[in-house]
Write a structure and sequence with these properties.
Elements: H1 4-15, E1 42-47, H2 52-61, E2 69-74, H3 84-89
Parallel strand pairs: 1-2
């Protein structure tokens, strides 16, 4: 029986490809340049199709100066057009996009 490394190598030869293991240096990511933009946390909140009431209660109690962005996601049938942005913009002073 062939060793795993022999099997991998022979398979790569049949496919006409070369297997290479990148060096450790190839995995290092460059650090992003310092930004002058203010960073802030992003909070994701999900709910079922019936979660509209929970979203409204949450937004009604939320202060305007949290320093956070909120992404509200509602599970809907893919054929159903969402009106969530339009409805939530009526009950909060926060910008709704």
């Amino acid at each position: 029986m062939k060793a795993k490394s022999e099997l991998k190598s022979s398979r790569a030869d049949r496919l006409g490809t070369t297997l290479a293991i990148p060096s450790a240096a190839a995995h290092k990511r460059p650090r992003p340049a310092p930004s002058t933009a203010r960073s802030f946390p992003v909070v994701g909140i999900g709910a079922s199709a019936g979660g509209y009431e929970s979203f409204t209660k949450f937004l009604e109690q939320l202060p305007l100066d949290t320093g956070m962005a909120f992404v509200l996601v509602q599970h809907l049938d893919p054929t159903h057009e969402s009106k969530l942005s339009e409805l939530l913009s009526r009950i909060t002073r926060l910008p709704v996009i």
